Amino acid sequence: MPFLTQLADVARRTGFPVTEVSGWKTRGHGPQPEVQGIVCHHTAGPAGGGDYPSLAVVRNGRPGLDGPLSQFGLGRSGHIYVIAAGRCWHNAPSTSPQHDNSSSIGIEAENNGSQPWPDAQKDAYIRLCAELCREFGLPAARVKAHREVNTSKPDPHSIDMSDFRAAVAALVKDGAEADLSWTEKIVKNLPMVRLGDDNYDVKTVRGCLFARGHVPPTAYAGSEAGLEGWLKSTQCDTGLVELVRGFQRAEGLDEDGFVGPKTWPSLLRV
């Protein structure tokens, strides 16, 4: 994985102000090999000094540890600072292989280690983690406090990480739903239709199959009433299951005979 030059765009999706710290796109201890987790920190910086007084330390490092120390900084106001696109020295030694320096992104939130967290800052923290999860395809469970993946660390202080991750997960889910078109949302909520069902969803499947040219010859036997009766039937019988299998085969789908989330879109041509 190269330098993560998309990080500023990811941060802007939170809706909070973003500052791209000069040189961030090439800053790092080499490229970031992979992103398997997110580690949340507090800076342990000064109690005062403005929105993000720890910027120079996070960017440049401190005696005994060269910077950058994390990819992101988070000010007290919720302002997000994009500091580095490459690997950062933010968690070592790590108790989790998914949260060491080579496999995770670090966020250093301004706090001296005992101050209350401003609502805006905590909201931005959650939203940034949610957008990073969406960007890199991570579950909310991969968002960890520094103290959870490094037994010698206490940060970020006083944040209940179970509640934090639940809030991240809710945003990730809402964001995924928002990306769907209205027709995709309808299809996503359609029920499974399978052998033995007797309901109007079965009738819908018959109508869709007819529209796609998949009707058994016996439906036409005798008269138009034969086809009409076939279309009106609400029973999912073995004949209908075989017809579904034929449709799935023609569409390159798994031939399981079930009409579910993988077959409905093709039937409805979403």
CATH class of the largest domain: Alpha Beta
Strand content: 5-15%
Biggest sheet strand order reads 1-6-5-7-2-8
How far apart, in Å, are the first and last alpha carbons? Answer: 34 Å
Report the total helices.
Answer: 10
Please count the beta strands (DSSP E, at least 2 residues each): 8
Strand count, sense and barrel status of the largest sheet are:
6 strands, mixed
Order of helices and strands: HEEHEEEEEHEHHHHHHH
* CATH-defined fold name of the largest domain: Lysozyme-like
Shape: elongated
Q: What is the CATH-assigned architecture of the largest domain?
A: 3-Layer(aba) Sandwich
What is the percent of helical residues? Answer: 25-40%
Overall pLDDT level = 92
Give me the CATH superfamily of the largest domain. Answer: Peptidoglycan recognition protein-like
Low-confidence stretches: none
* Computed structural class: alpha/beta
Overall domain count: 2
Task: Describe the structure in brief.
By secondary structure, this protein is an alpha/beta fold. The protein has helices at residues 7-12, 55-60, 119-136, 146-149, 161-178, 182-188, 200-211, 224-232, 238-251, 264-268; strands at 18-20, 37-42, 61-62, 65-66, 72-74, 80-82, 104-109, 143-145. It folds into two domains: 7-178, Peptidoglycan recognition protein-like (Lysozyme-like), CATH 3.40.80.10; 182-268, PGBD-like superfamily/PGBD (Muramoyl-pentapeptide Carboxypeptidase, domain 1, Orthogonal Bundle), CATH 1.10.101.
